[in-house]
Specification:
The chain has about 150 residues and is mostly helical. The protein has helices at about 5-20, 30-60, 85-100, 105-130, 135-140. The chain contains five helices and no strands. The protein starts with 5 loop residues before the first helix and ends in a 10-residue tail after the last helix.
């Protein structure tokens, strides 16, 4: 749609809305699991929200939903010292938590959101590498994109 990555942003918000909507329709979790998953899901949703908020506040003026960065400086501290894209990490944890609180179909759509964000991260990293000369060195120090010790 444009050079900033509007298509990625529209897609992610559509999928995020779908996760929320699908959580409101059956099938829900089996009754024997529902209470436990609801508690775990609530804790994960809160933790993911806190992480996403911390990461977005750490970015400050650099925060944008678009893959093309706002040239306000490369942020490497705080949660960015653990993974390169902690806003997405926090968002995924939040949506996994919401899905555990609500329904299995919501969790399936959250998996689709994870795939979308993993692809968006790769595009975003090409932009970051082009804008910030120190980005490659940062990637050498912080090896994981979204999940510590995994990806």
């Amino acid at each position: 749609m444009n050079g900033r990555g509007t298509g990625w942003v529209v897609s992610q918000f559509l999928v995020m809305g779908t996760v929320l909507a699908v959580g409101l329709v059956p099938p829900y979790w089996p009754e024997g699991w529902q209470h436990t998953l609801s508690i775990i899901g609530g804790a994960l949703a809160i933790g993911g929200g806190v992480l996403a908020l911390w990461a977005s506040r750490t970015l400050g003026r650099s925060f944008t939903p678009f893959p093309k960065p706002v040239e306000a400086g490369l942020v490497t501290g705080g949660p960015f010292a653990i993974v390169r894209h902690p806003v997405y990490t926090g968002g995924l944890v939040l949506f996994v938590g919401y899905s555990l609180h609500t329904s299995l179909p919501s969790l399936a759509v959250t998996a689709a959101l994870a795939v979308l964000w993993a692809a968006k991260v790769r595009v975003e990293e090409r932009f970051l590498e082009a804008v910030y000369p120190g980005y490659a060195a940062y990637c050498g120090r912080v090896r994981r994109r979204l999940i510590p010790f995994v990806y």
